[in-house]
Amino acid sequence: MSLDPHPTLYGTAVTLRPATEADIPALVAIRSTSEVYRWWRGGADLAAEVAGDLDDPDTAVLAIVYDGRVAGQIQWSAEEEPDYRHASIDVYVDPAVHGRGVGTDAVRTLARHLVADRGHHRLTIDPAADNAAAIRCYGKVGFRPVGVMRRYERGPDGTWHDGLLMDLLAEELID
Prior knowledge:
By secondary structure, this protein is of the alpha+beta class. It contains 5 helices and 8 strands. β5, α4 and β6 form a beta-alpha-beta unit.
């Protein structure tokens, strides 16, 4: 599956635009913070990890621009099999702007696009089960818990951690 070029999207406070190589240093700096690295991890070379995200043909990677600067990354991918069609979202936001609604606005803006412009009837997101701030953020957009995925991902310490599968049906999107 190859995604079409992604348009720039405008939220209430954020702009979501296709991420470019020029964004790599800012995204690496954000992803290197302990608050983000805890959930997103990465190898010894985070710049290579971020560049790899940008080069993935199956994922649309967008820079979250807030107050004139890159404040995070949001990405989406889609299952295009007609009987299972849906889109998935992942996001991280600079801890320097946590608590300002940046993540909620970014997720809502992308969700609106995926429903209205891309025709998805269902979206998923899968935060760590103990990432309470992310779970609250996604709930504000209309995502609901589906279930706990036990030992879903390996943490930076090498141990397995649970994930929470959340989904949103188009009619549940909170504008």
